[in-house]
Write a structure and sequence with these properties.
Elements lengths: L2 H10 L2 H6 L13 E3 L10 E4 L9 E2 L5 H7 L2 H17 L4 E2 L23 H17 L3 E7 L12 E3 L2 H8 L1 H8 L4 E4 L3 E2 L2 E2 L4 H11 L5 E3 L8 H7 L10 H5 L4 H9 L1 H4 L4 H12 L15 H8 L5 H17 L6 H8 L6 H14 L2 E5 L11 E4 L17 E2 L5 H8 L5 E4 L18 H5 L5 H10 L2 E7 L17 H11 L3 E6 L14 E4 L7 H9 L34 E3 L8 H7 L16 E11 L11 E11 L5 E10 L13 E10 L4 E9 H4 L1 E3 L3 E3 L3 E10 L2 E10 L2
Parallel strand pairs: 2-4, 3-13, 4-5, 5-7, 6-8, 6-18, 7-10, 12-14, 12-15, 15-16, 16-17
Antiparallel strand pairs: 1-2, 8-9, 11-17, 19-20, 20-23, 21-22, 21-26, 24-25, 26-27
Helix pairs in contact: 1-15, 4-5, 4-17, 5-7, 17-22, 18-22, 20-21
Length: 739
């Protein structure tokens, strides 16, 4: 950041001009999700912000697989490539800031935005998330780490108070955001929810104390859309930018003649109406319970102007916010500067075909083969029956701000027919199509689909019986703004799978879901393939895997048998909360840590995933021990381990080598997880190949957070267990560490 240039601009800006830089306005063209008008007098241009994590939400764009699919690849390098591709499309659409990635840890398996997040584990989230950020930033676009912090459910997300311990925050919920800051992320989005009593847009201890003072973040803190509640509290709490700074009518007016007329005529002013008086009943009747109240929408407008004039907010506080925003301009080269020189010379064309291929690669690499009796891979000559309510359309994503209009799509039916001989691939729905919900649905959306006559269940079963292999494609429907009602698949799909499996023992189930779902039929089918929300290349990637491309994915979340298996279940205090407070009583025992503590056997454990190859582990060795514990640097290696991995098959395969640490007994009164992910490496091995894989274990992986003493590495014996999942250790070694 060139402080001299920013100092000069600050000295010239009037107060009104400063306020123009800390509050969004509607994009005149209606394309940006968020828009800063700039200050024309001083040659400060407009700034465009755009959704989102699965693709650019502006006209057509590549619909990449859902973020959880990227998490399932366990491959930071691939995440970096996706970030670069998203940056290229963001720039091609004329925007400057990408509102991604989502870095919240998956706490609730039925969370409406689980598909937008990477994992239930902070180390996996940190590694893949930081690489994603690095790719976006390297592409000349500002990344936005969201939603800071503890935004772990959609139910009442705009008001719920996450009551969470400092230890759980530090060990589980903050690491992904810290990693993004270390990757030089440009912006952080404050979450809607409260944390320990304070709205995140006003949370000074976390925004100023942790984010800025501890981590050294010098970028922009923006609100989520209509996520600001009080001008003075937000200004003093550390918020820099209020978004969108406009009413719902103003924001969407460019897309509607009626709304444009309302903006021109201003009926609320003419009739002396208070917009919330009619908006809030509409919201209560027709919108999801997680949608924010869009009134008031201009707290960093006149309310902040008055607060500064009355001395409630210091002029220096406003200047600091403007400095952060101008710093973002400078990073992007919009005030001139190194990145700007590179960016202005970079082509704004996009390799759309190459990006489609990348989306296909991510979908393939994120596919998790959960179970297989040898039916897969297919040989190519089998007749297929494809069954499923939505198997003839690609599952592009979930609902909400991450929705993308794809450049093209390939459905499972299309992908399999392209790969096989078309006459040998039949299709039957079996049950009614599952709705793909949208946060932008209006009352009555999908009514025609719900009222039309249902598909023929018996015809689907008959088709399955007549085919050599049946592929049943099932799915859920998740959206921002509401959590799923349960882990069960909707619409009679479980019954369909059971009937088809009884008719044909060679039944392969393809599960397109936002996160874990119940699989009561898992032991009765030949194979289970988890593809998440695979994006626009859905069917092509599926065909790749079913016909022999090794599925590289491993579970980034634990798949329980039922919701009641999860640590958040069993008490409404933990979820969905009571009296708008949700108590994180499980502490650090999120996901697999809680399953281990409670002695619950998951259906499929964290890190699980089968391969068409056959891997063997041996020769685990601790190559290096830093006896002083890595000093003060929590990311400094403490243990350098190596393990030999051999592919015993005669075909290539991809393995994700996972290292878990089992700590010594903690001091009395402190519980620690039985084992925690410490390091991992995704490696491709040819048939018969052996390779020594290095794994570096940082101090942070051994440490626990003590509210009094900070990060602490307990003395004692630490076991390093390397294997294929959190419950499938193949080799282990131990090391003694002194305090």
């Amino acid at each position: 950041m060139r402080d001299g240039r920013i100092d000069a601009l600050l000295a010239e800006l009037t107060r009104d001009e400063k306020l123009r830089l800390v509050r969004g306005r509607p994009d005149p063209e209606g394309r940006a999700t968020g828009y800063l008008p700039g200050v024309e007098r001083l040659d400060i241009p407009p700034l465009g912000l755009v959704d989102g994590p699965l693709g650019v939400r502006d006209r057509e764009a590549t619909a990449f697989p859902a973020t959880i699919t990227l998490g399932a690849t366990w491959d930071p390098d691939l995440a970096h490539r996706v970030g670069r591709a998203l940056a290229a499309e963001t720039r091609a659409r004329g925007h400057d800031v990408l509102l991604a990635p989502g870095l919240n840890v998956v706490r609730v398996p039925t969370g409406g935005r689980t598909f937008e997040y990477l994992s239930e584990d902070p180390r996996l989230t940190s590694a893949v998330g930081a690489a994603y950020v690095g790719g976006v930033e390297a592409g000349g676009v500002a990344a936005t780490a969201k939603h800071f912090v503890a935004n772990n459910q959609e139910h009442r997300r705009d008001v719920v108070d996450a009551v969470v311990s400092e230890r759980a925050l530090r060990e589980v919920y903050l690491p992904g955001f810290r990693a993004a800051v270390e990757a030089d992320v440009s912006a952080v989005m404050a979450a809607y929810n409260r944390v320990n009593g304070h709205y995140m847009s006003e949370h000074r201890p976390l925004l100023e104390g942790v984010l800025r003072e501890e981590w050294g973040f010098d970028g922009v803190v923006t609100s989520d859309w209509w996520g600001t509640h009080d001008a003075v509290a937000a200004a003093e709490g550390g918020l820099d930018l209020e978004m969108p700074g406009a009413s719902v009518v103003e924001l969407f007016a460019p897309h509607s003649r009626v709304l444009r007329a309302m903006v021109r005529l201003r009926p609320s002013d003419r009739l002396d109406l208070d917009p919330p008086l009619f908006w809030r009943p509409v919201q209560r009747l027709f919108t999801d319970d997680g949608q924010p109240d869009p009134y008031p929408f201009d707290l960093f407008g006149d309310p902040l102007r008055r607060a500064v004039a009355d001395g409630l907010v210091a002029e220096a506080t406003l200047d600091r916010k403007v400095r952060h925003v101008l710093g973002l301009y400078d990073r992007l080269g919009k005030l001139g500067g190194p990145r700007g020189e590179r960016s202005r010379g970079a082509p704004r064309t996009v390799d759309w075909e190459g990006h489609h291929d990348l989306a296909r690669e991510v979908a393939r690499r994120g596919t998790v083969l959960l179970a297989n009796d040898g039916t897969l891979p297919l040989g190519g000559n089998e007749s297929l029956a494809v069954v499923g309510p939505n198997a003839d359309e690609a599952k592009v994503g979930g609902g909400g701000s991450s929705e993308v209009t794809p450049t093209r799509t390939v459905s499972p039916v299309e992908g399999l027919r392209e790969r096989a001989s078309a006459p040998n691939v039949g299709f039957e729905r079996g049950v009614k199509p599952v709705a793909n919900p949208s946060m932008f649905d209006v009352p009555g959306s999908g009514l025609r689909r719900r009222l039309r006559s249902g598909p023929d269940f018996d015809a689907a079963v008959a088709a399955a019986a007549a085919a050599d292999v049946t592929v049943v494609v099932v799915q859920d429907g998740a959206t921002e703004g509401e959590d799923r009602d349960s882990m069960a698949l909707p619409g009679g799909q479980d019954r369909l799978v059971g009937a088809v499996a009884e008719a044909n023992p060679r039944t392969v189930v393809v599960c397109r879901s936002s996160g874990p779902v119940e699989m009561p039929w898992a032991d009765d089918v030949a194979a289970v393939v988890q593809t998440w929300y695979p994006g626009q290349a859905d069917g092509a990637a599926l065909a790749d895997v079913l016909y022999g491309a090794d599925p590289g994915g491993r579970l980034p979340v634990t798949v329980g048998r039922r919701f009641e298996d999860y640590p958040v279940a069993g008490d409404e205090r933990r979820y969905p909360g009571e009296h708008e407070h949700v108590h994180y009583d499980e502490g650090v025992f999120v996901g697999y840590r809680g399953f281990d503590r409670d002695g619950v056997a998951p259906r499929f454990p964290f890190g699980h995933g089968l391969s068409y190859a056959d891997f063997e582990y041996d020769d685990l060795a601790i190559e290096h021990i830093d006896t002083d514990g890595g000093g003060d640097d929590l990311d400094a290696p403490v243990l350098d381990a190596t393990v030999t991995v051999a592919n015993r098959a005669d075909r290539p395969g991809r393995e994700v080598v996972q290292a878990y640490v089992e700590p010594p007994a903690a001091p009395a009164g402190i519980d620690r997880p039985r084992r925690e992910l410490a390091a991992f490496e995704s490696v491709g091995l040819d048939g018969g190949e052996r390779r020594t894989v290095p794994l570096s274990v940082p101090k942070r992986a051994l440490a626990r957070y003590d509210p009094r003493d900070g990060w602490t590495v307990d003395a004692g014996e630490y076991a390093v267990v390397v294997g294929r999942s959190s419950r499938d250790g193949r080799v282990r070694a131990s090391v003694e560490l002194s305090k």
